[in-house]
Amino acid sequence: MRQKIYFLSLILLIVSCKKEKTNSIIESEDQATSINFIIDDLDEAISVAKSEDKFIFIDCYTTWCIPCKWMEQNVFVENNVINYYNDNFVNLKLDMEKGVGPELNKKFKVNAYPTYVFINSEGELIHKGRSTMLPEEFVQMGKDALNPSKAYGILTKKYNDGTISNKDLLELTTKAYRLGEKKYTEYYDELMGKVDETFLVSENGFNLVQSFVYNDQHELFNTLKNNDKEYRQLVGDSLVNRVYTLCILQNFSKELKTMDEETLHYNLDSLKSLDALPRSIAFNHGRYYLLREDIEKFNEISEKYIQEYFHNDGVSIAYLADMVFRMGKQNEKFKDEADRLITKAYKMKPHDLGILNSYVQIKNNLGYKKDAIEKAELAVKIADTVGQIEKDKALKTLEQLQGSI
């Protein structure tokens, strides 16, 4: 399995966090300002877990993992996260490249960072998760660790013991798939060999479809179509429409370059009927014409979407600008269109850090270095209110621009 670092592009308010270390445990003075972690000492964590009769939560990190730092600065400092994890777990922060880290890496199959492992005081796997998360998602992961019908390690044990139900096997299969575990195919095949029509035409069956159907070639796509009415009654139109939308978007990704205009509009109309996000519709519509270097048509349809949907959405307009710029760096008409769109986005939201970053990149590449440096300086000031990681990135960009003069 290739190692991957999953980045989630989110902008949250970072709570200022002051940490103090007493022996090997990070603690607060009056009220905790972050999760109380034992640092790189598995033996101590096990000892505390035994005395307090708790599971151990392990934040598996590396010093070079930027998403790990993002979680530390944005999620571990949220009050609901602090309270839940400090109340329910013995928390261990473990560098996976030092000490017992490499050994646990192999034992728990950690192949991406950040990864979160929950174990009992005997060192047995209880639950596992990975990637950056919002605070509420992170708390839910902790709740799942305490729920035998949701905890990955417990479900795995049931499977190995031959005592797992179809419902629990579904839960295990979807969790293994999301964790990138190779064994998910074994679970999936066994589940498909066990389930009957009654299971498929149920909420559990829809959960199976929802978890694995991303294109109309999947074996479960026909199950979705044949039971469309029943699924809508069970889970509602929104969730069913979402699966169809993902399938259409996947087809766009594969076939947009060779797609004829009639098929394009059929798919766009389908997305609209499914209440797909206007941004998804606009980007694929626009990309169709950019692939054909028809900048006049792109300009026409982009203005239509801006007027109808994005008149207050500078972020979406900046994304359009980025798309044009990336796809036509050597085309003067593309450059002009990218300049027009990013200028419009910036005027709409001049203090949005994401828009500023795109503005700086595009303007600099178009030769407007003075303007780019001025906005890069503004980006540094704004990033200072967001967090150290964003500020470091903004400073690095500014230094590169200043060094290129």
Describe what this molecule looks like in 3D.
The chain has 405 residues and is of the alpha/beta class. Among the domains are: 4-11 and 19-146, Glutaredoxin (3-Layer(aba) Sandwich); 152-194, no CATH class; 350-405, no CATH class. The protein has helices spanning 42-52, 66-74, 79-88, 101-107, 135-145, 152-161, 166-178, 184-194, 197-200, 203-212, 221-226, 228-235, 237-255, 261-273, 278-291, 295-308, 314-327, 332-348, 353-365, 369-383, 388-403; strands at 4-5, 20-22, 25-27, 37-39, 55-61, 89-95, 112-113, 115-119, 125-130. The strands form 3 sheets. Strands 4-6-5-8-9 form a 5-stranded mixed sheet, with helices on both faces. A two-stranded parallel sheet has the order 1-7. The longest helix is centred in the middle third of the chain and has 19 residues, at 237-255. It is flat and about 65 Å long. The two termini are 43 Å apart. Mean pLDDT is 89; it is low at 1-30.
Strand content: 5-15%
Individual helix count: 21
Low-confidence stretches: 1-30
- Indicate the percent of residues in helices: 55-70%
Mean pLDDT: 89
The helix-strand sequence is EEEEHEHHEHEEEHHHHHHHHHHHHHHHHH
Strand numbers in spatial order across the main sheet: 4-6-5-8-9
Alpha carbon gyration radius: 25 Å
CATH class of the domain at 4-11 and 19-146: Alpha Beta
